[in-house]
Task: inverse folding
């Protein structure tokens, strides 16, 4: 049985767990430190991105090594709108980010989805790096390596500029982002369990068969690519005000690698896997970076371990443990 | 000026400082330090953010080493007002992560001050944050400049580095002085704001002295480029009288070596505005005499009469088998400035100062650092002398040094206030 | 003429080291179907180790002009990393999706970066001016460093050697057969484990040799490995994945093109390469020589 089928079969318990986790997240700033809340906030933004990434990777079987491109689109949208056009409404920023990223994803996707596997990964990587060099080259527009400031956006039309920065981030903006994440998680859940989502899985498992059954493989991959890009852009737009500054480093290929790392760490075969991966990655990096200057080695070793021993990630390990326990009963 | 370090401290801090020094002395005798009256007993927590990988890893490592040497020395002599110092290191990486680390140091580690950061992009991200969080940030090399414009002319907590373009201005002044006959110049600078600002301001200053000088080529390798054979071919093609570069990391020896391989500087003059950042890698075998070489704020063999420098060079060499670079001086200065400011505040207030009070004391402060006295202006921008000169092989090392040593003062190469428009300021100079 | 010669020459010099690294990437991809991102890290390791060897060679009082011998030795010696990495990591993922193999080598990149930092620190290092011993020659008025010529020559010899091995030896025939179909080798009763170890070691040595050879003409800096991956990536995409001929032509295209771009339109230096990469991927995703045998 596939993990996602399990979830369906255990629907009521799962829903209950989700509600509890959601409430825990919501109440977290009340008892956790500001810094922990801030890390959670960045996690919410990354969670949106990896949800999108996994629609491609886990559900459609396409590994994008350039997804940071779309998150940078979202982040720079926030910077341009707040900084250059004085549009401070977060809702407008999100909508514009979705529109721009969807258009770009449609164009790039039309090219990329013709290929699979390593070629798809390389093509997305090349586009990400092209945008990286673009940001550096057209510095009079983008600020080059210095990047751009992101001003504090209005939430639901409320101007919250009077509140101290950290309070704004860990209270108002925190809740705002969490709600968006919850909505987008729900939407993604609907997508993957819809006939469309089932088609994607069919394409992943056996594209020839899917094509034979009348599924337009490329078209479906293209749709998935666009949705995935839009998700990444929303994540980027949400992340930008939290950092306060956007820079080309956001679209460097290693940052795309980080997104894939998160997805793999949590488990790409499970709907919630990437989210688990995101939160674990963020807190792990926070600890390990303070512990040693050789944190890259440790992260490399973790990644190697995951790939070799536990490709199902944390969610994979948990579900196999659960299965074992059930088998024992 | 034969003075010991202890005497400097006395000089700067004034008489009231005596209390701290005496206490420190006692502390050493009893192998434990006693904090000054009214000072908390726990150690002072200093957040350090050095770049340790890639291009910024080169100066970053030097600065991080210096910070550790400083902390050991200060702790051995009783700490600051009897309080030991404790270092909390978080690596400088991307802007996003720097913001995170800065928040972590402030909110979780509750550090008293954060020193470090070298990239302007990261400075721009962290500068506003320091103000919002009320956290003292003393940059090594990070400014909050957008191009040549200062974005944060008035700060309380963010103490910024010297304007990015200072060394290029100094390089141009010396070019005009030593190579008055040149007609054509070419630039090879990294493709980012520092590189572009340096090239622009270098040309502006040079044209101020010699209006007929013409730029015949401008090359923009990306930051982190590791091969310049093609760039050198392009430079040879352009045949300029002088080549200017603002490289400051591992790219300097690469450029120098590959230039030597085709004899580029046999016919062409060179101005390496910031190459002193890796001066120990510029071996005589491939680095010619007669180039302008800038050491930024510190030249390791500037003088024998400044014990602070002599002692530091020895300590650093004994420990790491390398001769120190300017980033060491920035790192040393910011810590020394912080220490002095705290002691000053304490002598006036009679209690342990808040971050805001320390910030006020830091504005306009002058302290002895490795390169002599240097300080912060009232607008919290560093000022210091710049050391530049003409490369020579007449030394006992296997790398080049400079002779004569030109000491350029802040008034010559740094625009007087943050609001000053750079190019208007240059236009207003006397020729 | 003088200008054209020196621009082409510097492009070819770039291409010669790029070719070695890309060839390492290709041979491994051709046989094991693993896209080895760590090829740049091997290159960096070769460079750092090359410096150590040359320095001790000179310190030992050996005749300086012979430094090229221990340098090549250093590159070959480092090949021992090959079996370790292959047996220790790569062999576990042969049956997995290509993307997992890519991620594993990405992990390797991260680890080797820190290993280098741990052993050699962050300061740039050089072999001094030892390459200048060979002097320069004049060709159509252009000054060319002889050492760079030697590097180009070495690269050509290695290319010829690989060509010979692939076409005329039993090992080469096995490689070509298995590149087409993995089961083929097994069906013929060939010890595929040994083939994989040998091939991966060959791929590693090409990288370390490239790094060792280039180092007298440049300086080691900690970012050199990661920087090279992007270029090597461009080479194999343009040339075609898995093709040796592709690595050769691709390296020449990237090297010379970069050189020409720098001297004609320096602002576009890096952009040109990405645009060509994308153009090739869009128009002919197999690359110029993709689909042809290793």
Result:
């Amino acid at each position: 049985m596939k993990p996602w089928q399990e979830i369906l079969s255990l629907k009521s318990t799962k829903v209950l767990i989700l509600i509890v986790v959601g409430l825990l997240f919501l109440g977290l700033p009340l008892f956790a430190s500001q810094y922990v809340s801030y890390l959670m906030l960045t996690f919410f933004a990354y969670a949106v991105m990896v949800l999108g990434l996994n629609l491609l990777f886990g559900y459609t079987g396409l590994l994008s090594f350039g997804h940071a491109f779309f998150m940078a689109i979202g982040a720079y949208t926030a910077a341009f709108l707040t900084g250059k056009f004085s549009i401070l409404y977060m809702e407008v920023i999100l909508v514009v980010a979705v529109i721009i990223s969807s258009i770009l994803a449609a164009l790039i996707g039309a090219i990329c989805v013709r290929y699979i596997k390593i070629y798809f990964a390389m093509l997305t990587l090349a586009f990400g790096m092209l945008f990286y060099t673009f940001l550096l080259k057209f510095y009079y527009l983008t600020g080059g390596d210095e990047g751009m400031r992101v001003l504090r956006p209005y939430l639901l039309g409320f101007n919250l500029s009077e509140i101290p920065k950290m309070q704004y981030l860990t209270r108002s903006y925190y809740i705002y982002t969490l709600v968006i994440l919850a909505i987008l998680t729900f939407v993604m859940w609907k997508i993957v369990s819809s006939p469309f989502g089932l088609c994607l899985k069919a394409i992943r498992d056996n594209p020839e068969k899917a094509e034979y059954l009348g599924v337009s493989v490329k078209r479906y991959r293209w749709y998935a690519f666009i949705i995935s890009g839009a998700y990444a852009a929303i994540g980027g737009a949400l992340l930008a005000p939290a950092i306060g500054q956007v820079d080309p480093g956001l679209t460097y290929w290693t940052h795309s690698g980080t997104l894939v790392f998160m997805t793999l760490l949590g488990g790409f075969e499970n709907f919630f896997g990437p989210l688990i991966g995101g939160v674990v990655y963020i807190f792990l990096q926070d600890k390990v970076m303070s512990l040693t200057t050789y944190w890259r080695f440790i992260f490399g070793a973790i990644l190697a371990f995951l790939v070799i021993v536990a490709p199902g990630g944390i969610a994979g390990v948990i579900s196999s443990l659960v299965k074992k326990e059930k088998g024992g009963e | 000026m034969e003075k010991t370090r202890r005497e400097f401290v006395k000089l700067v801090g004034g008489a009231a400082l005596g209390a701290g020094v005496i206490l420190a002395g006692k502390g050493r005798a009893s192998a434990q330090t006693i904090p000054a009256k009214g000072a908390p007993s726990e150690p002072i927590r200093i957040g350090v953010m050095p770049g340790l990988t890639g291009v910024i890893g080169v100066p970053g490592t030097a600065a991080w080493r210096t910070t550790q040497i400083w902390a050991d020395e200060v702790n051995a002599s009783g700490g600051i007002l009897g309080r030991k110092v404790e270092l909390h290191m978080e690596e400088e990486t991307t802007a996003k992560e720097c913001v995170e680390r800065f928040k972590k140091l402030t909110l979780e580690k509750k550090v008293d001050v954060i020193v470090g950061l070298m990239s302007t992009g990261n400075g721009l991200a962290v500068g506003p944050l320091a103000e919002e969080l009320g956290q003292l940030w003393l940059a090594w090399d990070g400014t909050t400049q957008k191009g040549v414009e200062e974005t944060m002319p008035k700060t309380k907590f963010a103490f910024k580095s010297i304007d990015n373009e200072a060394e290029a201005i100094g390089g141009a002044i010396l070019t005009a002085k030593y190579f008055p006959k040149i007609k054509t110049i070419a630039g090879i600078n990294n493709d980012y704001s520092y590189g572009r600002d340096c090239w622009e301001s270098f040309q502006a200053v040079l044209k101020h002295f010699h209006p007929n000088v013409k730029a015949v080529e401008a090359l923009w390798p990306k930051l982190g480029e590791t091969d310049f054979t093609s760039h050198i071919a392009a430079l040879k093609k352009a045949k300029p009288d002088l080549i200017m570069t603002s490289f400051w990391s591992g790219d300097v020896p690469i450029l120098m070596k590959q230039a030597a391989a085709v004899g580029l500087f046999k016919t062409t003059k060179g101005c390496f505005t910031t190459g002193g950042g890796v001066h120990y890698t510029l071996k005589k075998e491939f680095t010619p005499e007669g180039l302008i070489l800038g050491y930024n704020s510190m030249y390791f063999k500037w003088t024998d009469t400044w014990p602070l420098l002599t002692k530091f060079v020895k300590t650093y060499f004994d420990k790491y088998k390398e001769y120190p670079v300017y980033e060491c001086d920035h790192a040393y200065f910011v810590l020394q400035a912080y220490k002095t400011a705290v002691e000053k505040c304490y002598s006036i207030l009679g209690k342990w100062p808040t971050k805001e009070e320390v910030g006020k004391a830091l504005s306009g402060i002058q302290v002895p650092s490795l390169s002599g006295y240097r300080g912060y202006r009232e607008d919290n921008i560093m000022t210091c002398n710049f050391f530049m000169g003409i490369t020579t092989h007449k030394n006992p090392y296997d790398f080049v040094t400079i002779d004569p040593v030109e000491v350029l003062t802040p008034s010559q190469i740094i625009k007087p206030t943050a609001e000053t428009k750079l190019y208007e300021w240059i236009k207003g100079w006397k020729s | 003429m003088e200008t054209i010669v020196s621009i082409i020459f510097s492009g070819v010099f770039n291409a010669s080291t790029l070719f070695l690294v890309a060839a390492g990437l290709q041979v491994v991809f051709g046989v094991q179907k693993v896209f080895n991102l760590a090829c740049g890290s091997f290159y960096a390791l070769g460079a750092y180790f090359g410096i150590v060897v040359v320095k001790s060679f000179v310190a030992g009082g050996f005749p300086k002009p012979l430094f090229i011998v221990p340098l090549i030795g250093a590159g070959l010696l480092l090949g021992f990393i090959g079996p370790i990495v292959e047996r220790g990591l790569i062999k576990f993922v042969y049956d997995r999706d290509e993307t997992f193999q890519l991620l594993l080598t990405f992990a390797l990149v991260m680890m080797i970066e820190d290993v280098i930092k741990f052993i050699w620190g962050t300061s740039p290092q050089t072999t001094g001016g030892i390459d200048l011993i060979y002097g320069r020659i004049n060709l159509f008025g252009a000054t060319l460093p002889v050492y760079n010529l030697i590097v180009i020559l070495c690269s050509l010899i290695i290319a010829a050697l690989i060509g010979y091995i692939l076409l005329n030896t039993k090992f080469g025939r096995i490689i070509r057969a298995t590149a087409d179909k993995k089961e083929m080798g097994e069906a013929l009763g060939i010890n595929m484990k040994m083939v994989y170890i040998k091939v991966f070691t060959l791929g590693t040595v090409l990288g370390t040799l490239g790094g060792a050879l280039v180092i007298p003409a440049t300086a080691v800096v900690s970012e050199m490995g990661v920087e090279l991956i992007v270029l090597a990536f461009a080479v194999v995409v343009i040339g075609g994945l898995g093709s040796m001929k592709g690595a050769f032509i691709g390296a020449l295209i990237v090297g010379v093109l970069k050189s020409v771009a720098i001297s004609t339109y320096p602002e576009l230096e890096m952009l040109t390469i990405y645009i060509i990469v994308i153009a090739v991927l869009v128009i002919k995703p197999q690359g110029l020589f993709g689909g042809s045998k290793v």
